[in-house]
């Protein structure tokens, strides 16, 4: 399993490399985002571990750039910033998980295993790369969404939300379930981030057909037949 570590602090990078290699991971180190974009974007990594506070382009900007380039390798962010809004920003721009410094290496290993297991499971459970719902078509290999054969530009978070709703088609999923599945951390259940992103999705994919239905007082359901 190949992991790309993006970390400019030598003490931390040495700690990461030593621990990961002792656990039989193959590790490549980059010290800044520019080095990654110049040399490593074409490599098929199993996981990327990225510090938020990098010199030059920061880690969140790098994640956003990678997702814009349709690179959907799982990304685990490292940061000394532990405010909820910092985590929300990283996850909104396309990170898959976020761990704050200092951390126990066993916790990091557990997060890595969870991310890679989730990715492997999703690949195994995808019988067809193309999903079609009326005028809506999702190419899961390319992470692209089309309507009437015209591509719809979705952010990584919007795409992940859409796929979660589709995976639970004809089922009502609560806001808390969506937050846990799509954002990956526990939020205050009073936040309106789910409603905001549902609105973004509806504006983009429901030009002629209705797919996402509000279940009053509970959550949302993906069903094109209602």
What does this 3D model show about the protein?
The protein has 226 residues and is of the alpha/beta class. Helices cover 41% and strands 22% of the residues. The protein is built from 8 helices and 12 strands. The longest helix is centred in the middle third of the chain and has 20 residues, at 105-124.
Secondary-structure topology with pairs:
Layout: E1 2-6, H1 10-22, E2 26-30, H2 33-39, E3 47-51, H3 59-68, E4 75-79, H4 84-92, E5 97-100, H5 105-124, E6 130-133, E7 136-139, E8 144-147, E9 150-152, H6 156-167, E10 173-174, H7 175-183, H8 193-205, E11 212-215, E12 219-222
Parallel strand pairs: 1-2, 1-3, 3-4, 4-5
Antiparallel strand pairs: 6-7, 7-8, 8-9, 10-12, 11-12
Helix pairs in contact: 6-7, 6-8
Question: What is the H/E string?
Answer: EHEHEHEHEHEEEEHEHHEE
How much helical structure, as a percent, in the residues? 40-55%
N→C terminal distance:
44 Å
* Count of beta strands: 12
Beta-strand portion reads 15-25%
Structural class determined from secondary elements: alpha/beta
Strand order of the largest sheet: 2-1-3-4-5
Overall geometric form: globular
Query: pLDDT average, as an integer?
Result: 87
Give the count of helical stretches.
8
Biggest sheet, open or closed, and with what strands and sense? 5 strands, parallel
Report the C-alpha radius of gyration, rounded. 18 Å
Low-confidence stretches: none
